[in-house]
Specification:
By secondary structure, this protein is of the alpha+beta class. It is built from twelve helices and 30 strands. Among the domains are: about 110 residues, Thrombin, subunit H; about 90 residues, PDZ domain (Pdz3 Domain, Roll); about 90 residues, Pdz3 Domain (Roll), CATH 2.30.42. About 20% of the residues lie in helices and about 35% in strands. It is flat.
Length: about 475
């Protein structure tokens, strides 16, 4: 679970570039006298007792618990520091020989680190949703079901801006959750979280929806659902259910001073997660629209200045040169009130709507300029963000060899002095165990030069349990044996 220290209150209006107690002595005589004095009054009122029905979550847990999974990951930590040498100690020193004999060597290289998280199954053939930060940098991802079965998962795709990741396990007829539209969520309604806080599998906590469409610092593209559900490290990626047993969000963040739950937890709306999931599965990347403007909230003083009836909309503070907004004629001082027939009550709503618009699409903006309303049509541009997603472009090869690869472009081939080859973008499973790392170039498999992803797939399909990869790292080339069994 990502943890953020709440140093000060969230700022409602700001620029967004694109969110009595005491102790009484007991006296029996006094107590009896007090009871006698008040008893007639209670009897006289004769009011019937009122029964308050509290929510029952048992049905939700029984139905959906089996579809919630525990995720454990292994990643590599920073290299350990070398053991301190003895250069500063004089050999004639009487302690020199003692320290030389009993100095304990410190292992070199990278040591594995363990992490935990949660996820939930959305299709019976093994598609799982979780948070990107749960699997970010992981070399191995293990998924455990409630029936104790465990699977090594493939990372189909990771989208850091939305903090969504899609996993795949090799299984069928799996239990799945039911999904709902996050737009149907109402502030004040009961919600339930199931996850693995601190590794305690299938832990159930509950609360209410505290607010909707929260924009958090650094998360411009997600209108978070705020709740007071107890969420702790390990809950990340787990589902948030409504009282109908439908998933409405993915638990993602908390604000905390202590590192644990303090009453503020945030979930990614399921609509956002499914939109990202579909793009990762179908295209291997996430495409987002972009206007190229800086915006800020409109407070009462600004509303008065710009001739608005009430504080609302997104005030354009800057327009990037040669951007979609510039080409459409947007200017600093414009107040955007509607985007494709959707009201903009807060500036935090606009980045989400624009990001969900396909690049090249024409969007209709209703703006106020110099106190007059006008409509502006803008052809939405594309948000360029390197490494927005890491997808399994090598298909099933990711599962057997454990690599995500892409062909070298001509400039990379020239610089490396090779013709062909594949760049490793991610390595897990057998490849990672053999020492393959992101950035390595795979030049051949069992002596056959590799020039395309399809060729690598074909060679692997015919290979046995052991293969030898010719790998170039920096200026060095070496054959790396990989055990595929």
């Amino acid at each position: 679970m990502r943890q953020k220290m709440l140093v000060r209150s969230l700022i409602a209006a700001g620029v967004i570039a694109a969110g009595v107690g005491g102790i009484a002595k007991y006296d029996p005589a006094v107590f009896q006298q007090a009871v006698a004095a008040v008893a007639p009054a209670v009897t006289a009122s004769a009011r019937p007792a009122t029964t308050v029905a509290l929510p029952d979550f048992t049905g939700i847990v029984e139905q959906n618990g089996p579809a919630v999974v525990n995720i454990s990951v292994t990643s590599k930590a920073e290299k350990n520091a070398a053991a301190p040498d003895m250069q500063g100690l004089d050999p004639s020193n009487p302690f020199y020989e003692f320290f030389r004999q009993f100095r304990v060597p410190i292992p070199q290289g990278q040591m594995p680190q363990q992490g935990i998280g949660s996820g939930f199954i959305v299709s019976a053939d093994g598609i799982i949703l979780t948070n990107a930060h749960v699997v970010d940098g992981a070399s191995n991802v293990n998924v455990k079901l409630t029936d104790k079965r465990e699977f090594m998962a493939k990372v189909i795709g990771v989208d850091k801006p939305s903090d969504i990741a899609v996993l795949k396990i090799d299984a069928t007829n799996l239990p799945i959750v039911t999904l709902d539209r996050a737009d149907d969520v109402r502030v004040g309604e009961w919600v339930v979280a199931i996850g693995s806080p601190y590794g305690f599998d299938n832990t159930v906590t509950s609360g209410i929806v505290s607010a909707k469409a929260r924009t958090l610092p650094g998360d411009s593209y997600v209108p978070f659902i705020q709740t007071d559900v107890a969420v702790n490290p390990g809950n990340s990626g787990g589902p948030l259910f409504n009282m109908k047993g439908e998933v409405v969000g993915i638990n993602s963040q908390i604000f905390t001073h202590s590192g644990g739950y303090q009453g503020l937890s945030f979930a990614i709306p399921i609509d956002v997660a499914l939109h990202v999931k579909d793009q990762l599965v179908q295209h291997g990347s996430v495409t987002r629209g972009r206007l190229g403007v800086g915006i800020q909230d409109v407070n009462q003083a600004l509303a008065n200045s710009f001739g608005l009836k009430k504080p609302a909309g997104a005030l354009v503070s800057s327009v990037e040169k040669d951007s979609a907004a510039a080409e459409a004629g947007l200017e600093p001082g414009d107040v955007i009130l509607r985007y494709n027939d959707k009201d903009i009550s807060s500036s935090s709503q606009l980045p989400v709507l624009v990001a969900d618009t396909a690049p090249g699409t024409t969007a209709r903006l209703e703006v106020i300029r110099n106190g007059e309303a006008r409509q502006i049509n803008v052809t939405v541009g594309q948000l360029k963000n390197a490494k927005v997603a890491v997808a399994d472009v090598a298909g099933q090869d990711h599962g057997r060899l454990g690599v995500v690869v892409r062909p070298l472009d001509p400039d990379e081939q020239k610089q490396a002095g090779v013709s062909g080859g594949l760049i490793v973008e991610n390595a897990t499973g057998p490849a990672a165990n053999a020492g393959i790392q992101p950035g390595d170039m795979i030049l051949s498999l069992n002596g056959t030069p590799v020039k395309s992803v399809d060729q690598l797939k074909a060679l692997l399909s015919k290979a046995g349990k052991h293969v030898a990869l010719l790998v170039q790292r920096d200026e060095a080339k070496i054959f790396v044996p990989v055990d595929l069994s």
